[in-house]
User: What shape does this take?
Amino acid sequence: MSSYIPLWCKSNFSFLEGASHPDELVDEAFRQGLPVLALTDRDGVYGAVRAHVKAREVGLKLIIGSEISIDDGSTIVLLAQDRGGYANLCRLITKGRRRSEKGQSAVGWEEVCAHAVGVIALWGGVETNLDSRVCGNDGRGGRIGETHLDKVNSKLCDAFGDRLYGMIARHRCEEEEALERNWRERMKRFDIPSIAANEVLYHSPSRRRLQDVLTAIRHGVPVASCGRKLKPNAEFALKPPYAFARLFADDPAAIERTLEIAERCNFSLAEIHYRYPSEQLPGGMTSAEWLRRQVFHGARGRYGEHLPETVAAQLEKELEIIEALDYPGYFLTMWEIVEFCRANGILCQGRGSAANSVVCYCLGITAIDPVRMDLLFERFISMERAEPPDIDLDIQHGRREEVIQHVYQKYGRDRAAMVANVVRYRSRSALRDVGKALGISETALDRVAKFLSSYENVRPEVLAELGVDPTTGLHEHLLQLSNEILDFPRHLSIHPGGFLLGHEPVHDMVPIENATMAERTVIQWDKEDVEALGLFKVDLLGLGGLTQLDLCFKLLREQRGVELSMATIPARDEATFDMICKGDTVGVFQIESRAQMAMLPRLRPRNFYDLVIEISIVRPGPITGGMVHPYLRRRQGKETAAYPHPSLEPVLEKTLGVPLFQEQVMRLAMIAADYTPGEADQLRRDMAAWHRTGRMERHRERLITRMQAKGIAAEFAERVFEQIRGFGEYGFPESHAASFALIAYATAWLKCHYHAEYSCSLLNAQPMGFYTPATIVEDAKRHRVTVRSIDVQASDWDCTLECCGESAGGFAVRMGLRYVKGLGEGNWQRVEAVRRVRPFVSLADFVRRTGLDEGSLCALAEAGAFDGLGVARRNALWDVRRLVQAREQSLTMSVEEVNPDFAPLTNFEEVGWDYRRTAHSARRHPLEPLRGDLNRQGLPDAGTVATMRNGEKIHYAGLVICRQRPGTAAGVVFMTLEDETGFVNVVVWESVFQRYAVLAKTVSFLGISGKLQAEDGVVHLVAERLWEPRVELQPTSARSRDFH
Assistant: This one.
């Protein structure tokens, strides 16, 4: 016999148990010449799709199964024979997961037997718990009595019949021999055939050390303390056929039966055919008829009673494809969700490639007219691709949960579940968890972890910089194992808003389990899994920008009687574009980052389409493809737009001959190389994956040959191909950029014309965007908006507006109690309830009537919230403790008490107290009290730096509010430093960063020496040296926002 089938294999999707990726197991099985492999992760099919994709790629048959946890502490391995058996397996897992705490699962033997149809059962192995001492059993249950086993035996035989096998597992453990002998006797007594197996936990014995570490992490103890929880040897690897045959040389029949089982299992995930939920429709209409009616009704609303010919033709073309692919139900569902949002005053907007569809535009799902913008529908759907479309619906994040619960209520928990997000190990979490498993102190690990980027390997240089020798035994293990565990699944989380909906119960396709958040359920597959199987996904995504817009519109309505919406904001406003061109865009959706602020004065947007380009050009694709500078030179008139061939001018004209969008690349292939729309979309998809798959090379010859045949010179054809490949995986869809540009313009207009309302709504929409509340407050003050401190007499929970003649626009922003750390919304409700009756007259009155606990009262005191009652902070802290004690005493005694004479806080101390308790200060910037000292040292403020000459050498000190290290920047780090007058953007070359890494990563008040680059209204300080400013008092600041 030349082969066997491994039927008990667990990947790293048996979380913190298996030590190989699913595709590694499949690859190794194929390399060893094994024709079939069964993936049987514990209580789930989490890794099944990844294994399925790899198995299909290499031509290996995959059996889908699971090791099921039983409520008596034992387990059983179940394999799906057919589609019905797979559905039974998913239902069983769902039962166990839904009734258990997150991360746990257990079912009863009766439930196993009730789901036996179409399923093969493998009973045996270590965790039948015949003997909990065998082979590293980790003690999930105790020894099971013979009587109980007999009862289980009978039930399994009745339910599974000839589909029940006894599993004989060998791992060269000392105690296995006795266990096997007992098990064989039982199998013989109940006439159950035996099969040969070993528990596969990794594809190679080299992963044994990592499996030990995973076991230690799972149990929360160091490896050294795990004892018999660890597997005793490295016999839990995927064995080659010759080694497995040698292991079971005394029982070839048991090996032969593994092949028999493989023959009996014929289910493949490719069998999951998905139809979208159909609903009861008016007048017995079909989904296609109802969709057509709604689309043309919406079209008349968009274009008038007489539709333009181009619109009508495009609608017919799209509807024909949608109907041919049986997608009407999907579009109707998205339309229904949008209608629910509108009916309930919830701001929403579709984006992504859906904005290429005039059907989506007419249904009100998207807000961009794809006919007017000449967007390519095939970027969204094509007959050749025949894959489900992807519509992303952005919803104001404060009300997204209402929409999610609506979907659950409409479709039911059986037919609606959210898509998972697999949380994976990154460098910091890997270092911490592996280090704890190795027994290294948490203090030391935290010290090192702070110096790591989350998206890079754990490098020995980092350890060396901190005085840790990476070559010593323990630290060497730490490095190796931390890097080995990178990208391993850590636990299951929930997708930001992806829903899987089905015409049949979702748990017949994939198990459903409880999410951490109450009233949420999640499937065991993530976004990539769902897409790989061609399943429909509804994305309901929270967007802070929409929340801010909604809040701002409400403030304008309430305070000024101004009715505005995204549709009615005046277009082409010169003042708004003037502001944008200056890079004055703190908080403006999509154009607020350091890179965007630096690009705006160069690109100088003057209309909506300029904003579309602005949003798209500051992306890795155009940057790595070398497209940014040619476009800017042409836009500034320094270079003439050139086209590889006259036929391509209509495609590239609006971007001056430089391809910036995915749709342009697709059209370019269609015109220059006669690609069909479907082929062009496949080019886009291959372009996105070329780094990982090398698929772009198959397009090279086709593109270049066809272009040459059309008269395009070979050198131009090569250049076009290189531009396409340069897009890599970061090319941006024009439709997506246009959808975002609508929100960007709306927020910019509000910032320009109603700055107080803009700032107030932005503060209330937090957390979102690039900047901390402290920076938003300072930006408002720099725009002459008065910002008032938190005050128990005047502040609501959210920030509010107060009439103020001295403030720009006539309104001041009053900071809300939501910004006091340690104060809950329930505390605020108590304050509001009693304050509504009558204002507070004293601190004693406040303490008595609100009944707040001492901790909440002290938090308010530290925040200066009692200043309006005439009580300074130190006095308030002293009085609060006394007043709480008096309130709690049943016997009232009149005792005259003399308060200590506390020194008032200095300006510097006041800011420090503000930041510690509220992470901002409405009173002053942390560097304002230090400006005199900084001036004496010759350190200019940001406003002065902005006026200095190009090439000037300067020294500057400011608070670090942002660090960014883009993957496209070859190791360059960009920092934004702030003082009371504005920002200074700093460029730190990799060599400088490495020389001053500790300072660059940890110091919040940082000094920079270097040379100014000033061009096109953009000023950067190129760092040559980093240092800590010498000041008598160190300023407090908010934590910087750091991005990769």
About this structure: Residues 734-753 form the longest helix (20 residues). Residues 601 and 1017 are 6 Å apart (CA to CA). The mean pLDDT is 89.
